[in-house]
Amino acid sequence: MAALKLYHAAPSRSSIVRWMLEEIGEPYDLHLLKLGDGDQFKPDYLAVNPMGKVPALDHDGVVITEAAAICTYLADAFPQARLNVPIGDPRRGVYLKWLFFGPGCVEPAMIDRAAPRVEPPRRGMLGYGDFDTVMKVLATAMAPGPYLMDEHFTAADVVIGSTLRWGTMFKLIPERPEFAAYVGRLGERPALQRAVELDREAFRGLAATLR
Ligand SMILES: N[C@@H](CCC(=O)N[C@@H](CS)C(=O)NCC(=O)O)C(=O)O
């Protein structure tokens, strides 16, 4: 039994963590949930994550939820993978900014755009401000490349990159050359390719059990 166990549904936000785990390179076990069957609301899973959501990660008996928090945690717990910017490095603040910007600004901006509210709140009430500004800030940050922290690929790229890959796939973000180039570079990473292929297999397996 591995020290790490990912509660996973493929494809879903837990694929962010699967990619992160593939980048880390440590062995991990998978506990697959069928969201369509409501596994996330069964008492044994609610005991793991009372939110009834994936992902959840168990590391040596400690459970962590929220994809970006899990990625931040893993990067610090396994520093040999060089996916964090360690405490003491002056660039850590910027790295943390991007880790929070993913779930705090990019994802809600994208979801609000995909499922608009009947009465949109004032810009000042929204933590992300407005969709166009979020996209502009991201595109500007990505323009120099190759990654958010320049040459250093980090957990922040896994978090923000996953959302942008998803946004590109479902056409939820504008077609900008900066996004296309960044998402293209991420797609070349062997760990991401492995995670995608493993998810595809898991999904095929799941589809077979549902037939
Ligand atoms: N804030 C959570 C969101 C997790 C989330 O929404 N997961 C979805 C899958 S993409 C889920 O578990 N959906 C099942 C449901 O809500 O019933 C995170 O970032 O980890």
Q: The biggest beta sheet, please? A: 4 strands, mixed
Kindly, what is the distance between the CA atoms of the first and last residues, rounded to a whole number of angstroms?
30 Å
Q: From N to C, what is the helix and strand string?
A: EHEHEEHHHHHH
Strand content: 5-15%
> Number of DSSP helices?
8
Q: pLDDT average, as an integer? A: 95
Content-based structural category:
alpha+beta
What percent of the residues sit in helical stretches (DSSP H or I)? 40-55%
Indicate the multimeric state: single chain
Q: So what's the overall shape?
A: globular
Rg on CA atoms, Å: 17 Å
Number of strand segments: 4
Ligand identities: glutathione
Strand order of the largest sheet: 2-1-3-4
Give the low-confidence spans: none
Structure description:
There is one protein chain. The chain is α+β, with helices and mostly antiparallel strands and 211 residues long. 51% of the residues lie in helices and 9% in strands. It has 8 helices and 4 strands; from the N terminus they run βαβαββαααααα. The protein has helices at residues 14-24, 43-46, 67-77, 92-114, 131-142, 155-169, 177-187, 190-210; strands at 4-8, 28-32, 56-59, 62-65. The two termini are 30 Å apart. Bound molecules: glutathione.
